[in-house]
Amino acid sequence: MSQQMLEQNVNGIRMQVTIAGEGPPLLLVHGFPLSHRMWQAQIAHFQQQYTVIAPDLRGFGGSDVTVGTVSMKQHAEDLKELLAQLEVEEPVNFCGLSMGGYIAWEFWRHFPEKLKTLILCDTRSDADTEEGVSNRLKMVDLVLRHGPEAVASAMIPNLLSKTSRDLYPEIAQDLIAEIEAADPEGIAASQRGMAERDDFLGVLDQIQIPALLIVGSDDVLTPPDIMQEMAVRLPEASCREIPRVGHMAPLEAAEEVNQAMEEFLAVAR
Ligand code: MLT
Questions:
Q1: Which of 76, 144, 193, 248 could form a Cys-Cys staple with 107, CB 3.0–4.6 A?
Q2: What's the number of domains the chain is made of?
Q3: Which sequence ranges are marked TM in the entry (predicted)?
Q4: Per-10-residue mean pLDDT for the chain, 269 residues long?
Q5: Measured in angstroms, how far is the CA atom of residue 98 from the centroid of ligand 1?
């Protein structure tokens, strides 16, 4: 089956999106500071039964960059407009990793009628602490002064488990190359947007949508206890912990993640 890469004019920017397969829509929303490429294993697998839609968010991959701050709400509005342009009318299965999850909360807040299910990988629902905000702003400064090369290698131990780094050094190399190729202004804009994102922990009990939470047992950025707490608060959620993997569970353990997603989506279909 073939993948198509399209460009759409979305809210004043050119947005690149990969589309594959036919069936109910499955929207794959990448993490920071990556692109749709992190979902290759999911695109290949789910295109057999779903219309897989994997965009590059504003500022990343092949999409245009906006200088300044790109809020999580802006990303959600871009996705809503993209779906309209692609004439996707039925509610989507929204799968987001980390920053993709922060965007999912805003998508739910503003466009609940467009949402069928939620798959939340290695993410959180609370806002940043003061220290978290300050670390983000330091990273913005570093990237704008010295480029993404200054942060790429240092991010890897936070993204991948030690097991993945030892067993699959090529995953780390690919991630480093992807981060180094990212646009510094694109990184800065979404990093500022994440620093000012809202807290959704207190409203999780209002999200009446079937949800699957997936987390790597060795995720140091959004650890399993945080995601298990979210699963308790969400009315229709379960949490699947994948052993020996880190923050990039869909990349590090593609088969297990695909299986968990497939089982969940089959029931929700
Ligand atoms: C991500 O993977 O999207 C980032 O870890 C999100 C963040 O920096 O909070």
A1: 76
A2: 1
A3: none
A4: 91 98 98 98 98 98 98 98 98 98 98 98 98 98 97 96 98 97 98 98 97 98 98 98 98 98 92
A5: 5
